[in-house]
Amino acid sequence: MALKVPRLVIAGLSGDAGKTITSLCLTSALKGRGMTVAAFKKGPDYIDSAWLSMVSGSTCRNLDTFMVDADIVADTFSRKAEGSDVAIIEGNRGIFDGKDAHGTHSTAMLAALLQAPVILVVNATKTTRTLAALVGGCMAFDPDIRIAGVVLNRVAGERHRRVVTEAIEQYCKIPVLGAFRKLGDDASVIPGRHLGLVTPNEFHHTSDLKTRLLRMADDYLDVDRLLEIARSAGPLTLRARTSPPPVQKTGVRIGYFSDSVFTFYYPENLEALETGGAELVPVSSLSDISLPDIDGLYIGGGFPETHAEELAGNRSLMDAVTAAAGNGMPIYAECGGLIYLARSLAWHGRTFAMAGLFPLDLAMKARPAGHGYAVMRVDQPNPFFDTGTVIKGHEFHYSEPTTPPELDTCLAVETGVGLGNTRDGLRQGNCVAAYLHMHADGVPSWGRNMVKAAADFKASRGTRAERRGGNALHRDIRLDCNRGCVS
């Protein structure tokens, strides 16, 4: 089949080149024209994807050929881009940066897979004509990649912009299609912190932001010419699609932490549970004092460290989670979820009590303890992964155990860090918690297995009406205890 959709890859010479602000401004401008924009983010990323989702008004999808087979990545792009007026794909790192010296899984390789023209964003700080050499070098480095234009970032003034623009257009024969001026250190469009930008859930000025993005697009981008280049992309030839199997409703309800703390979920992971027949039930780690009527729990990643005091203050929910685990409820936790289920977390000179499901004490470090792609092999039985499965995922965590944990684990680390000592995947009963982030499209058995584990737990607990009465009684007893007990 052939897909005809205008599309652009926004790439950079390096990380922090300005890809995100360029993608957000361009998306805002196109939305402002009444266009439907399909947003995508190359690589393993949750935060940039969340901002692209917020600005585009649609769910941003991650396209990562390391975690997910390239044919599936192309199929995801075609399914989500089809019917849109334009697709914007934000790259990551430098355009040719990949997993190895060959640039495997790079933004350039994704652009080739999607047969998409590339706009190269370059940081112009303290340089002029040299940028033409860098852009020309990228164009010559891989002639199969169509670099169709350049956007300058951090331009000092009009003379700076003019000199750089003339050099690139004269020597590289491609247009400069935008130039963002240099902002002061206190004038960031979106605030940042130790894992990058803050998440949209924690940003309280979204209307002001959208107005500012539109104004910046008007001031600094040639939107008409960028759209013209996107429309120059030819039809994308793809393999024939296979229809997904029909969803079999199971009556299973799976809760997942969804609030300003826990936001790191690939949409495909949640969809895999729904496709398996589960109903998803959001749970707030901050405001809910008990678990709803559910048969399983998924705790994704996020920023438990920045909310540690609030989380520790909601002892009632933590106790409910550990009680559910003790009763056999299947619980799957990733990174931030692992921190939540640990015994304690130390950060900025304070130690906070966590849920305590695993006797594991963690401490936040000044630098990442684990960062990048990871490969892990399942070598012990567990409810969610078949033994022998090789999982290609990623990790990005600043926390690490204060002492090497002597705990039961189910993942052998082949590349990456995990918990240390080549292990990850804490295992206790029907609960697994790992630093590893995985993508459900790369591990299709995960969703099926989690729904099955939840269905088995549901069957073991009797009818839902019986459980509802028992849960209500348990909740009332706990509330009475919280009112009458002094710790």
Q: What is the C-alpha radius of gyration, as a whole number of Å?
A: 24 Å
Instruction: Give the total of beta strands.
Output: 26
CATH topology of the largest domain: Rossmann fold
**Assembly form of the protein:** single chain
- Counting DSSP H or I runs of 4 or more residues, the number of helices is 14
The share of residues in extended strands comes to 15-25%
Report the structural category. alpha/beta
- The low-confidence parts are 472-487
Strand order of the largest sheet: 14-12-15-17-26-25-24-21-22
Describe the biggest sheet?
9 strands, mixed
What is the CA-CA span between the terminal residues?
Answer: 65 Å
Q: In CATH, what is the homologous superfamily of the largest domain?
A: P-loop containing nucleotide triphosphate hydrolases
Shape: globular
CATH architecture grouping of the largest domain: 3-Layer(aba) Sandwich
> How helical, in percent, are the residues?
25-40%
Mean pLDDT: 91
Q: Which CATH class of the largest domain is shown?
A: Alpha Beta
Topology:
Elements lengths: L1 E2 L3 E6 L6 H14 L4 E6 L4 H10 L4 E3 L6 H12 L4 E5 L16 H8 L3 E6 L6 H12 L5 E9 L2 H15 L3 E6 L10 E2 L2 E2 L8 H15 L2 H9 L4 E2 L15 E5 L4 E3 L2 H9 L3 E5 L12 E4 L1 E2 L5 H6 L1 H12 L4 E4 L1 H6 L2 E4 L2 E4 L7 E4 L5 E9 L11 E8 L1 E3 L7 E7 L7 E6 L2 E4 L10 H16 L3 H21 L3
Parallel strand pairs: 2-5, 2-6, 3-4, 3-5, 6-7, 7-8, 12-14, 12-15, 15-17, 17-26, 18-20
Antiparallel strand pairs: 1-11, 9-10, 13-16, 18-19, 20-23, 21-22, 21-24, 24-25, 25-26
Helix pairs in contact: 1-2, 1-7, 5-6, 9-13
